[in-house]
User: Fold these one by one.
Assistant:
Number 1:
Amino acid sequence: MSKVEAKNVWKIYPRGNVVAVQDLTFTCNHGEFLAILGPSGGGKSSTLRMLAGLEEISRGEILFDGKVVNHLGPAERNVALAFESYALYYRLNVYENIAFPLRARGMKGKEVDEKVRFIADMLELGPYLKKLPGSLAGGIQQRISLARALVRRPNVTLLDEPLSHMDQRVRHEIRARIRHLHDELGLTTIYVTHDQAEAISLCDRLLIINEGRLQQIGTVEEVWNRPANKFVAYFIGEPTMNFIPGKVETVQQVVILTSSGKRAFSFEPHTLPEQYVGAEVTIGVRPQQIEVSREGNRTNTIPGTVKIVEFQGDRTVLTVELDDLAGSEVKAVVSAQERYVEGETVWFYFAPSIIRLFEEERLIL
Ligand code: ADP
Ligand code: MG
């Protein structure tokens, strides 16, 4: 078993009095692949280093399998680590670097050899085993660091941007192998990245952190469909979610106030509490969920003029200015087969189920 819990954890760096992590509480379950995602400076690495036992916890508790580990170092916590900086042993060859955590635990001979060769094979390091790491490219050194982390079965595997120095092709390949190893070896993995595509492709659940604060934790589907706040809504998804100012008209209807009056959008059968009627809100709609057509003869539609058509190979992104809301641009994703031209009028249909509403920052629908 290796369940990891953070309870009201804070990190305050005395130097500069920086509050890097604030009151962070979450659980990573046994066997889970949890991705910690957030912008640079958000507190991801500080969190991971506290989990690893490399950084003192200012306040709060970290528990492994229900036991507080605050006072334990990395070895006692039995965690495997790989960071953006590789921290390899430059006087040992690649083979011995990977073998190091096994030998440190008293493993010998054939068992070491089997494990090292298995992981080296997985991460395409076979040709380099006899070389010294210093002579190899950054991307390869990072793979060695990753191999060293993945060679054994620790309580928890902690990876901080472990693919950042690899080129695009290698990165895609290696990330698939990391996930495969996680499943194969039954690991519990916490993986830090600022790259949402990487996080989404790897994880069981996402933890989103910004300015040291937990924004949301959930499956990709939960976070994508029901972002807890506008930060998450904007941070997850490409192109980003559209935000349009609106006003709650009834418990099942929101309106956009336009130059020509009101345009109503129903979110029936969903219902808001009565207290929100009259509230100024932000309507959130995902570009991928908008239905675009050349006719507007139904409810929940709004017309606009196509400003930009971006053909992206597998899809086309339209940037449309709403006709009766000057300066308001909305993006929609359509299939690559559909042909739209700049200047033409299109109608956006917002199905009731895709409408999200935010009051201030917080999701209310
Ligand atoms: P991330 O990994 O998400 O980019 P970090 O955890 O590295 O974020 O940093 C969070 C904040 O803490 C940043 O403002 C960063 O400058 C600050 N910070 C990180 N390490 C230290 C340190 N050793 N001393 C002082 N401030 C630090
Ligand atoms: Mg970092």
Number 2:
Amino acid sequence: MKMHLDEKIWLTLSFGMIMIFMLITGYQAFALEMGPPSNMETIDPQKVDQTAPFDKPGIKQIGEKEYEVVMTLQAFSFNSGNIEVPAGSTVHFTLTSKDVVHGFEVAETNLNTMIVPGHIQKISQKFEKPGTYLVLCNEYCGAGHQMMSTTIKVK
Ligand code: CUA
């Protein structure tokens, strides 16, 4: 196979670029630990109700405009749901599932995560704009999946 010089140049350049991108990504992931946020706390999904903090689900004020929400997801509800916080609050969610995989998506925000039984998910969000935010389960979890929703009211 005969190769033109400019083909060789382009092949070398593109291969070199791929190697550089992979090195940058690898450096960020392993040396700078810039991987996606992850939380490896586990829980016995059979004993969620008896395990702290899920034995007392609810909302707790932990600072000025800072709240902690402990919530369990189960077919087909969020406990506790219908949460209310003042505008400008940062809410730290601690979530787990009591049965199957559910989703936790808050419309109009970047909050969107899977809630996997056996794992504890922690995620935070600042709510600046007043309004009623729809919270949806976006993982198919059974016959009532489409009814699984709640709200977060920001006043
Ligand atoms: Cu829970 Cu779909």
